[in-house]
């Protein structure tokens, strides 16, 4: 699942506390009552909406967070896992909550179980007035939006967004460049939202995305170019990357990935690989790179890789540049005419 936190998209906590710091203004109280009465949800599974006491201060309602100044402005709405299946189209309450900083409508996705679908309002309309929003979680909500729509909706309406979680939202690619406008975005989770056979390019370089790169990257069967340069991703590289058969260009340099390099043997079209300046470790089995006859550039420098120097790389006929320095490789380097080699520092 997509975590371009992307702490790749980190994003593991929700807002469950309720801060009662003053009386909820009557207009906000009315909007929340309207929202409650409009939503279609399973009362037998509800733990928040069923507890809302309309005669009480709405800042005390479960899932509602208020700020601490003067009248308690509602700044957080957490209706996660409330089994909401509809009714948002009958209320304008959410879109009028212009002070909202956090919005969580996420739900556990179960195939065959009805989920909330954003049609009226659609994804863009729901967000258009929430300019203060810093955290958005819509996991399991059917957003039904393509790359241009959802990326532009986020970048246009939510300039302060820091945390984004849209797993299992039925989004499609390609990811629009407008997403890069979200300069505050530091955590992103797209989970299984981008299971799109047509997605060919994934570029999230020079962003604050962090977290674990999700296994669902392996479902992007048409991906030919992916760049995650100078991000804050960490953890192991997904084994599912072995399924990226159409990959031509791969650059994950200057991040904090750790663990072994996964098998890339099925990516027969690969021409460019750069895993430099990470924390990768372990040996590089020749079986993981078999058949990569189109490789021209390989940079594995500045990691903690060990074992014998991967001499099989030097046998690739198309190879032009290879960088293996600042690792713990052992052995001799073949002298191959025409290959520009960086590799002595860090060798044993």
TrEMBL record:
Gene3D superfamilies linked to this entry: Ribonuclease Inhibitor
Topology with respect to the bilayer: Single-pass type I membrane protein
UniProt subcellular location: Membrane
Chief place of localization: membrane
Signal peptide feature range: 1-20
Pfam families xrefs: LRR_1 (PF00560), LRRNT_2 (PF08263)
Record keywords, A-Z: Glycoprotein, Leucine-rich repeat, Membrane, Receptor, Repeat, Signal, Transmembrane, Transmembrane helix
Record domain Leucine-rich repeat-containing N-terminal plant-type: where: 26-67
Domain of life, per lineage: Eukaryota
GO CC, one annotated term: membrane
Designated name of the protein: Leucine-rich repeat-containing N-terminal plant-type domain-containing protein
Organism expressing this protein natively: Hevea brasiliensis
């Amino acid at each position: 699942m997509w975590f371009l936190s992307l702490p790749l998209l980190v994003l593991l906590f929700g807002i469950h506390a309720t801060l009662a710091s003053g009386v909820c203004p009557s207009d906000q109280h009315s909007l929340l009552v309207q929202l409650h009465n409009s939503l279609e949800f399973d009362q037998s599974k509800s733990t928040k909406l069923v507890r809302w006491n309309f005669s009480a201060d709405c800042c005390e309602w479960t899932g509602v967070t208020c700020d601490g100044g003067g009248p308690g402005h509602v700044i957080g709405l957490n209706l996660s896992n409330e089994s909401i299946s509809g009714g948002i189209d009958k209320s304008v309450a959410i879109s009028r909550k212009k002070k909202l900083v956090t919005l969580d409508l996420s739900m556990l996705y179960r195939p065959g179980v009805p989920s909330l679908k954003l049609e009226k309002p659609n994804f863009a309309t729901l967000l258009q007035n929430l300019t203060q929003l810093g955290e958005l979680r819509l996991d399991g909500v059917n957003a039904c939006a393509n790359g241009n729509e959802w990326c532009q909706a986020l970048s246009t309406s939510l300039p302060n967004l820091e945390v984004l979680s849209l797993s299992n939202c039925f989004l499609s690619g390609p990811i629009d460049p407008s997403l890069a406008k979200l300069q505050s975005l530091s955590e992103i989770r797209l989970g299984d939202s981008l299971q799109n056979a047509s997605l060919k390019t994934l570029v999230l370089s020079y962003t604050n995305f962090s977290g674990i790169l999700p296994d669902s990257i392996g479902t992007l069967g048409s991906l030919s170019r992916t760049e995650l340069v100078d991000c804050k991703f960490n953890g192991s590289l997904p084994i599912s990357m072995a399924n990226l058969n159409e990959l031509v260009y791969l650059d994950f340099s200057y991040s904090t990935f750790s663990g072994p390099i996964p098998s890339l043997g099925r990516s027969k079209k690969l021409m460019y690989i750069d895993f430099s300046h990470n924390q990768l470790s372990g040996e590089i089995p020749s079986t993981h790179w078999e058949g990569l006859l189109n490789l021209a550039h390989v940079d594995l420098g500045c990691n903690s890789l060990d074992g014998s120097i991967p001499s099989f790389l030097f046998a690739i006929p198309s190879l032009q540049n290879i960088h293996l320095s600042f690792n713990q490789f052992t052995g001799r380097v073949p002298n191959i005419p025409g290959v520009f080699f960086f590799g002595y520092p860090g060798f044993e």
